[in-house]
Amino acid sequence: MPVKSLSRRDFLKVAAGTAAVGVMAACSTPAAPGDQTGSNVPSSGERIPITVMFWDPQTPGVRELPMKKWEETQDTYSVDYQWINPPSAFYEKLTIMMASGSPPDLFILQTSWLPEFLRNHVLLDIQPYIDRDNYSLDDFPKIAVDAYSYQGGFYGLPDNITAWCIYYLKDLFDEAGVDYPTAQWDDPAWTTDDFLAACEKLQKRDASGKVTQYAYDISTGGWLVQSIWMSLFGGSFVDDPLDPTECTLDRPEAIEALQFLADLAWKYEYAPRPEASADMNAMEMVTNGRLAMFNGGGWGFQRWADVPYQWDIGHFPKGPVRRNDYVFYYPISIANATKHPDGAWELLKYYEDVAIKEIIAEGGLQGTKISDMREIFATSANPPESREVLVDAVEHFGILDPRLTNWQKIVNTFTAELDYLWLGEKSAEEAAMAAKAAVDPLIQEGRLTSEA
C-alpha cells in the first residue's frame, strides 16, 4: 500500500549527494553501456556485489533465491539481496543510502515515488541499454511502460504487476440465484445495472429490518478502488495523469460515480455503513458469510485460503463508459550513482526474463510479462479458478498514478474531504467540490515542470 513520502524539500536534503551526481550526468554526454564499469572488474576473481533492495510484505524472500541464481550464469558479479519491510522503512533507508553516496544498485519503487526521483535525477536512464541490446518491451503492459518513460529517457522495468478485482462468495450467490461476476473482460454482461440488481438479491435483513448480510464493501481499497469506479463512469481524479494540471472530481462523471458508491451504503444499505464496519471489518464479514463481494487482488490469495466458503474472483462491472481497473506496476530502477550499471542492468534483465518465471511458479506472484502471466500464473492449479481475471486486467488497465511529486499529500487531502461523503454527511457534489478546491493548488506545486 502507498506510504507517506517526503516533501520535495526534505527529499532534496536527503538525496542531495546523488541529485548532484544525477544533474551532472543529465547535463553531460552519458557513457556508453559497457564503458562505465571496466575499472571495477576484479582481477583476482573476487566477484563484484550488486546490491538489490526490495520489500516483501506478503511473501518474505520470494525473490531472493531466484535472483541469486544469476550468479551461476556469470563469474563477475554476486547478488547482495537486502529485504526491508515495511515500505515506509524501505523508503527512509533508500533515501538515506542515496544521501550517503552509497545507494543500492537496483531497487523497487512505489509509483507514487517515481516523479520525485525523476525530478531529482537519482535514477539511471536505461534507454541506452535497451537500444544496445535490442531489448523488447512489447510483452510488458504498454501503459506501465509509458509510466516509466520521461523526457526521452526510460527509468525502470516492472516488478510484480497485479490488479484489483472483486472477490466473491459463490455460496451466497448460488443461494440468492445470482450470476457470478464475469471473468471475461469483454463480456457485455455484468454492468453496473447488473451489479445493483445482484446487490438487491444478495442483501438480507432480519425481522426487525436490520441488515444481516451485505452485498459489497465500499471501504476497502480507498482512493485506488474509487478511481476504478470513477473510470467506469468516465471520471478521474485529474485531467491527464502524465501531465496533470487540475483535479477533475468536480466533473459530472466523477460526481455520478462517487454518489453511486455512497448510495450503496446510505441509500440502499447494500454496503456496510461505518458503524457496522466498526463492529466487524469487511474480511471478518466475509469469513462469517455476511458479505458477498470484497475488493482485493492477487496479494490476497493466501488470506482467502481460510475462508470457509467456495470463492472466486471476477471483474468490476462495466459502467456507462467502460470496464477498467487499477493495477500496481511498481518499477525496479537502477541508481544513477551506481558504480556498476552494467551489472545492475544484466541482473535486471535476468530478473525479467528468467527469475520471474520461478517467482510466479513457486512464490505465487503474478509476474511482469503478459505471456508469463498467461502461461504460468493463470494456469496454476491453486485457487482461485478465474486467475485470468487479473491477467486481463493487467493487459487492459487504463488508470495511472498521476505524475506528481506530492501525490501522497494530495491523496491525503482529497481523502479527508471525501470522508464526509462516506460518513453520510455530504453529497458527492459537495464533497467533490471541496476536494477540488483543496487539491488544485497542490497539483500546481507537484507538477514536474513546477519549480515549487
UniProtKB/TrEMBL annotation:
Signal peptide coordinates: 1-25
Similarity annotation: Belongs to the bacterial solute-binding protein 1 family.
PROSITE patterns per the UniProt record, alphabetical: PROKAR_LIPOPROTEIN, TAT
The organism of origin for this protein: Litorilinea aerophila
Matches recorded under NCBIfam families: TAT_signal_seq
GO cellular component: cell envelope
PANTHER family: ARABINOSE-BINDING PROTEIN-RELATED, SN-GLYCEROL-3-PHOSPHATE-BINDING PERIPLASMIC PROTEIN UGPB
One Pfam match: SBP_bac_1
The name this protein goes by in its record: Extracellular solute-binding protein
Keywords on record: Signal, Transport
Entries under Gene3D superfamilies matching the protein: Periplasmic binding protein-like II
Subcellular location: Cell envelope
Domain of life: Bacteria
Keyword Transit peptide: no
